[in-house]
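Title: Prediction job returns without error message
Component: structure pipeline
Severity: low
Priority: P3
Assignee: unassigned

Description:
Job completed but the reporter wants confirmation the result is attached to the right record. Sequence as submitted:
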Amino acid sequence: MDGRRAGRAPAGRRRGPHSRQPVSPLSGVRVLVTRPAQQAGALCDLIESAGGHCLRQPLFSIESAADPAALRPAMTRAEDADWLIFTSANAVEQAWAVAPDWRPRGGLAAIGQATAAALRDQSCLADDREVILPESDFRSEGLLALPAMHDLDGQHVALVTGEGGRGALAEAILARGGQVERLAVYRRLPCPVASDRMLALLGEADIAVLTSGESVSRLVQLSPPGMDGQLRQLQLVVPSNRVLKMALDFGFEHRPLLPEKVNNESILAVLIRWAEQGFR
């Protein structure tokens, strides 16, 4: 730990024996938030309401598919799919951006709560349409553990997602007998970040929120020459054990923190717990 971090008082504690009001739980904590710009606001609002300071630097931007017209035949076929699995709120938003009159009739499944909420907000879907999602494990593994996903033999499953990704969900569906049609309705494009900007961010940040393995890789890629040591001292918050292992493989010295769930409230909670332990 460098001298700047070690010398600062732990967050969330009173400033002295005569103080009448407690310090906000994230007072003095500078959090690097790397989400795409359009998705960072709600988390930053929570962090700042808890007294923290957000350093906003998206590492990727969310863009529509390069050729939306080429997707429309597949989306027409997907209207009759047995299941439509949406991997993110971006997938929901961009699917209807590609085809505003899209009317899928099959079962709806979402990886996480934000994705399910985005589906329920779609005005073209009936208010009583059920959306299945994991109770707590908001990852592909959690969705695959649901009873409805156990036997997919002969079923047509439309996987509504972005370009790239691990492919583990599609492989698992195929292994269970399903027929997968992947609809890559958006792209995640790396944001250019100047070296002096990254230098300033690494000098200021106490902790960074990274919500994908790609974000960890991008952060390492953007690290200016000579800053590797400081980068690897940075405490990270990551979404899964897979990304945690990736960060350790990159040489980050502090074990990354895992929120209980991959949502804004759980990320805030893990930040507060870390701050109350004295910036460890």
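Comment from assignee: result matches the submitted record. The first helix runs from residue 3 to 6.
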